[in-house]
Amino acid sequence: MKINKKLFPYVLTLPALLVCVGILIPFFTAVYYSLQRYNLKMPHMKGFIWFDNYVRIFTDASFWNTIQVSLTYTFFTVILELLLGLGIALLLAKRTWYNNILGVLLILPLMIAPAVASLMWKLMVNPNFGVVNYFLSLIGIYDFKWASDPSTVMFTLVMVDMWVFTPFIMILLLAGLRALPKQPFEAAELDGVPGYYKFFRITLPMLFPYILTASLFRMLESIQQFDIIYALSQGGPGESSMVFQVSAYLTTFQYTNIGKAAAMMVVLWAIAYFLCHVFVKQWHKLREKTKGIA
Amino acid sequence: MISSSNTLTKIFKFLAYFFIIMFFLFPILWIFMMSFMTNDEILRKVPTIIFSPTFENYIALLKGKINTPAGVMDVFYMQNILNSFILSSCSVLLTLILGIPAAYAFARYKFKGGEDIAFTILSFKFAPALLIIIPLNLYFTKLGLYDSYFALVWVYQLITLPLLLWIVRGYFEDVSEDIEHAYRLDGHSWFKSFWKISIPLARPGIAASSLICFIFAWNNFVFALILGSSSIQPVTVGALSFITASAIPYGLIAAGIVLSVIPTLTLALIIQKYLVEGLSLGAVKG
Amino acid sequence: MSYLEIKNINKRFKDDIVFDDVSLSVNKGEFFVVFGPSGSGKTVLLRLLSGIMSQDSGQIFMDGVCIDDLDPNERDISMAFQNFALYPHMDAFENIASPLIAQKISPDEIKKRVQEVAELLKIDHVLSHKPKELSNGQKQRTSLARSLVVRPSVVLLDDPLRNVDAKIRYEMRLELPKVLKEFNTTVIYVTQDYKEAMALGERVGVLANSNFTDVDHPTHVYKKPNNITSAKLFGDPTINVLNASNISSGDLSTITASKITIESNNPNLKNQRDLFLGIRPEDIQISNQVHEGAIKVELRAKTPLNLRTVYLLRFEDGVEVLASASEEESLLIDDQKDFYIRFDNSNLNFFDQSESLIQ
Predict the structure, then answer these.
(1) CA distance C103 to B189
(2) Does the predicted TM-score (pTM) go above 0.80?
(3) What angle do the packed helices B250-270 and B26-35 form, to 10 degrees?
(4) Residue B186 at interface with chain C, using a CB cutoff of 8 Å
(5) Which CATH superfamily is domain B77-285 in?
(6) Full domain range(s) for residue C252
(7) In terms of domains, do C70 and C145 share one?
(8) Where exactly does CATH 1.10.3720.10 map onto chain B?
(9) The predicted structure's pLDDT at residue A156
């Protein structure tokens, strides 16, 4: 009976733990493959080449293109969503009836599968009947190429991402705004502090933990984004929107080069892991700081 | 936060509201409307809000047959919807069985390696899906699991399990431990206390997180795309195949989209309070 | 005969030692009070006894059998929690019936017994209410009913009257012992209120500094506390503790504390040079007249406390003491005139350097 007590929590978590282990097996398999020359079309050539795959992808111009595209995509989506999300949260902060309704309705885009959202937008920017093109024509913009031109495809993708995920940031920041203590603001009012000062020196610093959390989540998701890009452009035209996971997908299923795809994914995983660490450290540091302010 | 004392600010605010509503909400409305339009109406140069709605798109999807210029086509979209339901519900069910005891353990006990296990499970949310899926795809083909709901449901745990643990753990922490102790002292076994006290008292959280997990499972695309044969593919993959298939009426695609999002949108509206709570509190507690 | 026995219990949380080699024997059917300030470990003790928590080392025996390996639901011990711990999703009846259901008693029998206990505790009219519809007093009685309905050998009461309104608290203080007598069970009652300890307990155990400093009849603990800590815990206002020095010649000791000089034949005082003198405010008599052996003091402040009046008095050398007088007595004292104090030597207690009582 006594032994049971110590082991008990492990018994409870055992099933979940098994899933854990179950995930780790393919993970290590992937790492294993990344160290091999493994192409499904040429199974007889399978063999260990150690870090050759990694060397090859880092000397491959298209991989650097992938890195650049992914980072651009991540940068723009995170920054723009943060700004827009913050703006909306500030706008909706006051608890009026219209703000409350809008707050609920704005969750909806987040609830639509990103792949389906891409589909929706594809319909709306269709050159033949897309309603968005119609609106654009009213203000004098004709023939916007959206996803069919390398110069505009990134814009299109970021727009769809913003459509789906800005609500996430909005939810977090709105909750944060509403949870802020009233006293510092009341004190500032009494002191006759101007609006922008209040915002930049009081509101913003207090929102920092939320902003940090929101950006971390979005950053990790954006750098690994697959659904939106696959559904909208499949990495094209050409390679102009080839982000990490889309590239890995095509490498696996079109070029059947498992070894290379695995190597790419391990690199992506390492980047995500690194970002996580840096941010969590910053988060902890900021936590200490804001404890002094709040 | 932004004081609206002068007219300039008022105009700015009005424009802001207008932009937000147009950008975020209009598309949903438009797709709904499109689903009730015939192809001719859609292809009209100037879109109108006033039109006579038709159900032919929905009927075609439900019947599974479309009349195209090329002839009558079979469409298996309803099967996709059914697949989504099966996959999402089974995933949530499995997650409940695996996750609720684990969430309880993390909430109540401080045991060695506990935080590590919790962190590992949560980290799944941030690992690249393809890193896991590519090897899994190879395993599945070798083991012939390509056609089974069963295998896919287990892979979906990657999405649903971290989410459930994240949310339900907090709800268990909120249940007073003394109530559980009192029930044990009454003479009931640990399992009875877990089943009759802990779970009922955490029920709102468990219910809410199940629905949230359902939504996220439903919206998943990449797992089903790579690991599922066409007979078990959910609606996210099914909808996409519409675009690639030729001569499908656009109204039909719109109707397909509408059918695929109605479940999640309805659920979201029902549990919106818990949604916000679950996402934000869990995120900040980190 | 010792029924409940704890032997050499040690328990610590990280750097906080809660119990340091604690032992205690409680007799069958006894009403034993555990008294101590907050944080002294009273609740931990109850959790160890009930099996919710495990001790680091040491053993607990019930009727001669070691119960350490038994889960809480296997021990014949009930507990009424301080914050009631009622099941919010069940009504009062189901709450009380819970232990009976665990014993698989027939529904008719359950109904009968719940009704019995509820009538005894005067909550039979609210049995269908959910906990949030009950007043604090009713919640406490439901909690008590739940712990008694199964007629346990031992019942643990964790400061049950703490969260109850003051008026009801006094009523229940009279009722409780009567009710518990009906069940003939061994009771461990935990409280922070020394008055409650003195009113209820046959014996009281004072828990302080990781152990029981006194285990005795409450009056005895009050009169002869084993150390300064327990002396201070009993009594309002707190006992006066003065630094004193002792000069012994032969068996005679002369102790001086401020302006007080005492002579004693107590052989235990012989070798103590520096010690502490303790005297309770209640035991100091104030008068405006100079009687034999009275000491002159100066009135510094006066304040009412309950039905008595407390005087802050200062000796000529600056040392201050508190003295309290009853209403009638304080009416006879003229604050404008000189103040003199006297006391009975038998009310004095001496403590050595380690703060232990010198017998």
Answers:
(1) 11
(2) yes
(3) 130
(4) yes
(5) MetI-like (1.10.3720.10)
(6) 240-358
(7) yes
(8) 77-285
(9) 92
Note whether B42 contacts A20, CB cutoff 8 Å: no
Residue B68, pLDDT > 70, answer no
Give yes or no for residue A294 having a pLDDT over 50: no
Instruction: Write the CATH number for C73.
Output: 3.40.50.300
List, as ranges, residues 76-95 from B with C-beta within 8 Å of C: none
Query: In this complex, do A129 and B42 lie within 8 Å of one another by their Cβ atoms?
Result: yes
Say whether both C61 and C190 belong to one domain: yes
Please identify which residue in the block is written with the tokens 């996210």.
B236
Please report which confidence band the pLDDT of residue B261 belongs to, taking 50, 70 and 90 as the band edges. Answer: very high
Average per-residue pLDDT for chain A: 84
Q: Chain B within 8 Å of C83 (Cβ-Cβ)?
A: yes
Interface membership of C88 toward B (CB under 8 Å): yes
C-beta atoms of C102 and B187 within 8 A: yes
Contacts 24+ apart (CB under 8 A), A64-70: A65/A239, A65/A242, A66/A239, A66/A242, A66/A243, A66/A244, A66/A247, A66/A264, A67/A244, A69/A154, A69/A239, A69/A240, A69/A241, A69/A242, A69/A243, A70/A223, A70/A243, A70/A244
On the CB side of A227, how many CA atoms lie within 13 Å of its CA?
25
Interface residue A2 vs chain C (CB under 8 A): yes
Domain boundary among C216, C233, C250: C233
pLDDT, one tens digit per residue, over A23-45 is 888 888 888 888 877 777 676 66
What is the interface pTM, i.e. ipTM, of the complex? 0.85
A:128-187 residues touching chain C, CB 8 A cutoff: none
